[in-house]
Amino acid sequence: AQSVTQPDIHITVSEGASLELRCNYSYGATPYLFWYVQSPGQGLQLLLKYFSGDTLVQGIKGFEAEFKRSQSSFNLRKPSVHWSDAAEYFCAVGGTSYGKLTFGQGTILTVHP
Amino acid sequence: GAGVSQSPSNKVTEKGKDVELRCDPISGHTALYWYRQRLGQGLEFLIYFQGNSAPDKSGLPSDRFSAERTGGSVSTLTIQRTQQEDSAVYLCASSLGAGFNSPLHFGNGTRLTVT
Q1: For the segment B70-110, what is each residue's pLDDT rounded down to a tens digit?
Q2: pLDDT of residue B113
Q3: Mean pLDDT, to the nearest integer, of A18-23?
Q4: Chain A residue numbers touching B100 (CB-CB < 8 A)
Q5: Sign of the CA dihedral A79, A85, A86, A88?
Q6: Do A42 and B42 touch (CB under 8 A)?
């Protein structure tokens, strides 16, 4: 069965600092990988996705993620965090042909001014 | 444009009562999904509808949970004889088609509290 682990429940960074959110997955074949963001009072929004090809994918809002098969990881990064990035971030993996995704527990990001 | 709409946004019910949660997907989206998000946990897949095909109910936690989608549009998730462990945010999502090239668009969810 597929699974996703986000080791960090809560991360705090200063505005302007770099950010890396960790995600490890378990799946027997090449996975479909996603990062979603959930801001207070808003629905989940897709940041980026990986299906195949280039292992470094660019997303919206200046985010990027790198797929590393050898480490079963798909970490999310941003070079300089803005206060508006404070939210909860979810990594998800899909292994079937439609949107039946398995989500991680989420990482809450707090941004200090 | 209009996104996925869910109602009510909040629902408080007594243990043992039945509840109905509604989802209006984006117009033209053929795929519709229900997920559940318990406090401090990730989203759990519940059920998936695609066009006129039989729904994938593999994520429904018990036979107290059911869902239908009328006319290929609006969907209702029904929980019978609610229990305290049913307390969660129930999220609906829709997509233009099946497959991972059709991103999911999520609603804001219904927060269900069972007292």
Answers
A1: 887 999 999 999 999 999 999 999 998 877 778 889 999 99
A2: 98
A3: 98
A4: 32, 49, 51, 94, 97-99
A5: negative
A6: no
Give the E-state strand segments of A1-113 in sequence order.
3-5, 10-14, 19-21, 24-26, 32-38, 44-50, 56-58, 64-68, 73-78, 87-94, 101-103, 107-112
Contacts of B3 (CB under 8 A, 6+ apart): A43, B26, B105, B107
Question: Token digits for B30?
Answer: 């053929």
Question: Which of A49, A98, A104 comes nearest B31 by C-beta?
Answer: A98
Residue A105: closest C-alpha in chain B:
B42
Q: What percent of chain B has pLDDT over 70?
A: 99
Four-residue CA torsion sign, B66, B70, B72, B73:
negative
What gap in Å lies between CA A83 and CA A63, rounded to an integer?
14
State percent of chain A over pLDDT 90: 73
Count CB neighbours of B87 within 10 A: 17
Smallest CA–CA distance, residue A94 to chain B, in Å, is 8
Report CB contact under 8 Å: A43, B91. Answer: yes
Cα A31 vs. chain centroid, distance in angstroms?
14
Residues 60-99 of B with CB under 8 A from A: 91, 93, 95, 98-99
Residues of B in contact with A92 (CB under 8 A): 42-43
